[in-house]
Amino acid sequence: MSNREFKIVLLGEGCVGKTSLALRYVEDKFNDKHLTTVQASFLSKKLNVSGRRVTLNIWDTAGQERFHALGPIYYRDSDGAILVYDITDEDSFEKARNWVKELRKIRGNDVTLYLVGNKIDLERDRHVPLANAEEFASSVGAKHCGTSAKLNRGVEEAFARLTADMLARRDAEEASNPGSSSRSSTSRSEGATSAGRRSSGRNAGIIVGEDDVDGASGAGGGKCC
Ligand SMILES: Nc1nc2c(ncn2[C@@H]2O[C@H](COP(=O)(O)OP(=O)(O)OP(=O)(O)O)[C@@H](O)[C@H]2O)c(=O)[nH]1
Ligand SMILES: [Mg+2]
């Protein structure tokens, strides 16, 4: 049985919960503390989807401004993208437009895009109306989901929907081009970067650092975002 392999990138502003979503989905863990992702981290998950073996290679990119130039390195060859915003943070939603532009510059329409509003456990502090988010998602060819990495709500569903869409897209591509060998196994995740080639190891390459942004600014209070 062939193994379908997909590369997924998580992108969006800092502190919206990208790492938390990846960790919840792959390891069922949650950390209340914000450990700023430096460059990117990698996690891998194997699934069985209706009897078909699927491997998801998940690249969790850094949202902080100082790492923005690196994003496109990780977008290369991605099959799916999860653009995360925080439903309590309007700015993280406003900036989603820029993240879509960056992603489309590299992948055009060759990537299946999901817009994910995270932290739905904080519904009473919501600053992004659901209708606006859904409208924006459809205007950029994306689907929309709500999640709480903290309470494990909607996370499995978001990844499952994305996986189903990527599988359907791959099947359609192969049906319309039967001569092409299945873009399964390792070839698909091997980008031109070393990032792509690290995909064989589980949880390899996780690089996190303490968030020192507020500390450096002397703002105090200890809240990072
Ligand atoms: N209430 C709530 N907090 C969350 C949720 N998801 C993440 N957080 C918190 O939000 C903060 C940031 O989460 P991260 O996952 O580190 O955010 P990130 O998007 O990876 O941030 P960068 O790596 O800097 O880009 C942490 O304090 C998390 O505990 C959620 O669903 N609900
Ligand atoms: Mg992170």
From TrEMBL:
<keyword id="KW-0653">Protein transport</keyword>
<dbReference type="Pfam" id="PF00071">
    <property type="entry name" value="Ras"/>
</dbReference>
<dbReference type="GO" id="GO:0003924">
    <property type="term" value="F:GTPase activity"/>
</dbReference>
<keyword id="KW-0449">Lipoprotein</keyword>
<dbReference type="GO" id="GO:0005525">
    <property type="term" value="F:GTP binding"/>
</dbReference>
<dbReference type="GO" id="GO:0032482">
    <property type="term" value="P:Rab protein signal transduction"/>
</dbReference>
<dbReference type="InterPro" id="IPR027417">
    <property type="entry name" value="P-loop_NTPase"/>
</dbReference>
<comment type="similarity">
    <text>Belongs to the small GTPase superfamily. Rab family.</text>
</comment>
<keyword id="KW-0636">Prenylation</keyword>
<feature type="region of interest" description="Disordered">
    <location>
        <begin position="170"/>
        <end position="225"/>
    </location>
</feature>
<keyword id="KW-0813">Transport</keyword>
<keyword id="KW-0472">Membrane</keyword>
<dbReference type="GO" id="GO:0012505">
    <property type="term" value="C:endomembrane system"/>
</dbReference>
<dbReference type="GO" id="GO:0015031">
    <property type="term" value="P:protein transport"/>
</dbReference>
<protein>
    <recommendedName>
        <fullName>Ras-related protein Rab-21</fullName>
    </recommendedName>
</protein>
<keyword id="KW-0547">Nucleotide-binding</keyword>
<dbReference type="InterPro" id="IPR005225">
    <property type="entry name" value="Small_GTP-bd"/>
</dbReference>
<dbReference type="InterPro" id="IPR001806">
    <property type="entry name" value="Small_GTPase"/>
</dbReference>
<dbReference type="InterPro" id="IPR041833">
    <property type="entry name" value="Rab21"/>
</dbReference>
<feature type="compositionally biased region" description="Low complexity">
    <location>
        <begin position="175"/>
        <end position="196"/>
    </location>
</feature>
<keyword id="KW-0342">GTP-binding</keyword>
